[in-house]
Amino acid sequence: MKKIALLLVFLYSLTYAAEYDPIRGQMLSLSCASCHGTDGKSEAITPYIAGMGKASLYQILLDYKNGKRVETMMQKHAKGFTDEELEQIAYYFSNVER
Asked: What is the residue range of 40's domain?
């Protein structure tokens, strides 16, 4: 039983490994503004990402970075960030009000 509890704690810590830094998240998110609008509030055909769930946005960004999702601009863009930086970006946009 103790082994299962320890495994669950370890897996949970991997999911939320990065400590959220709101200033860093905002600075990293500025690179998204040209396509997704200020604070992710797109007024064009690109997706509106403000208020999107942190876990789902983070997974989408990782999928682009790792080639699981194919879209020329996002793949190239996501590859320029570390996983921790993508997590900061996801945290930031998840905290922006829609």
From this structure: 2-94
Contact 52, 94 (CB under 8 A): yes
CA distance 51 to 44: 17
- The closest alpha carbon to 18, from 97, 94, 79, 83, belongs to 83
What CATH number does residue 19 fall under? 1.10.760.10
Residue 42 per-residue DSSP state: -
- For 14-28, how does the pLDDT look when each residue is reduced to its tens digit (9 = 90+)? 555 569 999 999 999
Total tally of structural domains belonging to the chain: 1
Q: pLDDT tens for residues 42-83?
A: 998 999 999 999 999 999 999 999 999 998 799 999 999 999
